[in-house]
Design a protein that fits this description.
Blueprint: E1 28-29, E2 33-40, E3 53-61, E4 63-64, H1 69-76, E5 91-92, E6 97-101, H2 104-128, H3 132-151
Antiparallel strand pairs: 1-4, 2-3, 3-6, 5-6
Length: 153
C-alpha cells in the first residue's frame, strides 16, 4: 500500500467556489479513543457462544477547537490515503470524528493518516482566506468602513 502525501499548497476539489467567509482555525486531534463493539452474528438467536459474536472497534477523535463545517468538508476530501484507509469514510457528529473498524491494522492505518488529513484541512481552510471571493469581501468591507467614516464628517 503506497501512501500519497498532500501537495504543498492544497486546494479544495471544487476550486475556490467551496470557500466562504469561514475564518481559518488551526484544528488539532490527539490520540484516538478505541471502544469495542460486540454484537451477535446476523441470524443468531438464543444462547450464544463466543464464536457467535462479532467484534468491531469504534475509533474516535475529538478535534480541538471544534472545527467549522468547511474544515470537515476539506478533511473528508483529502486526496490521499490508501485504498482501504480514506478520509471520506470518517463520520462527523458535530463533536467527534469516528469510524467503525473490524481489522486492527485498519485502526493503525487511520491513526497514521489522521494527522496528515488534519494538516490538509487546516491548509485548505487557511488558503480560503486568500480566495478571490474572500479577498474581494475584505476589500469591500474596508472600503465600506472608509465611506461610513467619510459620511459621518
Amino acid at each position: 500500500m503506497q501512501d500519497m502525501k498532500p501537495a504543498a499548497e492544497p486546494r479544495p476539489s471544487n476550486s475556490w467556489e467551496a470557500c466562504d467567509d469561514t475564518p481559518a482555525v488551526d484544528v488539532r486531534v490527539g490520540a484516538p479513543h478505541v471502544r469495542p463493539h460486540v454484537v451477535p452474528m446476523s441470524g443468531k438467536t438464543g444462547k450464544l457462544g463466543k464464536e457467535d459474536l462479532v467484534t468491531s472497534f469504534i475509533v474516535v477523535w475529538q478535534p480541538n477547537p471544534p472545527p467549522p463545517p468547511l474544515w470537515i468538508r476539506f478533511l473528508k476530501e483529502a486526496p490521499f490515503g490508501t485504498q482501504l484507509v480514506r478520509a471520506h469514510d470518517l463520520h462527523w457528529d458535530g463533536k467527534y470524528l469516528s469510524i467503525e473498524l473490524v481489522n486492527e491494522g485498519d485502526i493503525d492505518g487511520y491513526a497514521a493518516e489522521i494527522g496528515n488529513w488534519v494538516e490538509y484541512a487546516n491548509a485548505a481552510l487557511r488558503q480560503c482566506e486568500r480566495s478571490p471571493a474572500a479577498l474581494a469581501q475584505k476589500d469591500a468591507e474596508r472600503r465600506a468602513a472608509e465611506i461610513e467614516k467619510r459620511l459621518k464628517r
